Amino acid sequence: MSARLSAFGWGWHNKAGIQVIRMMLSGLFERFPNLQVISVHWGEMVPFYLQRMDDMMLPDVTGLSGTITETYRAHVLATPSGMLNLPHFEFTRTVLGADRIIYSVDYPYLSNTGARDFLEALSIDEGEREKIAHGNAEALLFHGRDGLGG
Question: Structural domain tally of the chain?
Answer without folding.
Answer: 1
